[in-house]
Amino acid sequence: MRHVEGAMRAYYVYIMASRSHHTTRLVYFEQFGDVRDAIAREKQLKGWVRSRKMRLIEQKNPTWEDLADTWFAAQEADPSHLRCSG
Q1: What domain range is 66 assigned to?
Q2: CA-CA distance, 41 to 60, in Å (whole number)?
């Protein structure tokens, strides 16, 4: 989970794609206004099997594009553009 300070507080739950836990790209994230909601969602996702997480990613990011490329640029321009889901 990540907390970003700014004009409005935002909390993020994200999934990183990796090979043997060497993180390579950000493939999914959700934005929350309340830290308790973000923590609850993070716990929910951690309980899911890998195939279910993959289906979730592919619903929002079917090409497994690296979302980090636009993460910081969009955050600086307007934090509301960061909504991938949630």
Answers
A1: 2-82
A2: 16
Q: Nearest-CA neighbor of 65 among 84, 42, 51? A: 84
Predicted TM-score (pTM) of the model is 0.65
Q: pLDDT digits over 16-73, tens only?
A: 776 666 667 888 889 889 889 999 999 999 999 989 999 999 999 999 888 888 876 6
Q: Give me the long-range contacts of 16-22 (CB less than 8 A, separation at least 24).
A: 17/57, 17/64
Please tell me the distance from the alpha carbon of residue 72 to that of residue 55, in angstroms, as a whole number.
25
Write out the H or E segment, with its range, that includes residue 38.
Answer: helix 35-46
